[in-house]
Amino acid sequence: xxxxxxxxxxxxxxxxxxxxxxxxxxxxxxxxxxxxxxxxxxxxxxxxxxxxxxxxxxxxxxxxxxxxxxxxxxxxxxxxxxxxxxxxxxxxxxxxxxxxxxxxxxxxxxxxxxxxxxxxxxxxxxxxxxxxxxxxxxxxxxxxxxxxxxxxxxxxxxxxxxxxxxxxxxxxxxxxxxxxxxxxxxxxxxxxxxxxxxxxxxxxxxxxxxxxxxxxxxxxxxxxxxxxxxxx
Length: 232
Fold this sequence. Notes:
11 helices; elongated
């Protein structure tokens, strides 16, 4: 059975549905889909297998938790497809992920990340007997800024099945792009990994420089600054 056949099989779609509906059974759109569940899933399987499936539009809304975020919500039908694809494709990509990546991965998650941070903090601080410095940062509009072309190229290194790649392409390109102010081009993933690392180190070095000049943090941050930017 090919990767694509695994994705579109009714068995996989039913498993994807069970994963998707966790914590959502009270939602009106989920209840409407479940009202005719078998008909909906078998029709979805047929549309996928015959290449008639097309990803639907997204519903855009705003949340404040506490910061303002714009959410694009796919339909229930499309989110079942997302889970079905992930169930088959994610294990193929898992081996390329770094260990300390905790979002949307089996066996990871928030609690595992907290335990890992505590381990590092305990090691650096001498079992919490000394100071421990940490850098907390966020990448603005991270998912919006991912280059679709680069993402598909990376997926192509793990997935060779043409039907699966076409489904991935249609799904990824269904997501609305960010505004047209050039933000996507500035924040694109770089296909050259070494170039990406060098750029990150240079920017981190610039960020650390003013902190390094402060007396309280100079001793702790100077070695880190030299590590990322030896010529400084």
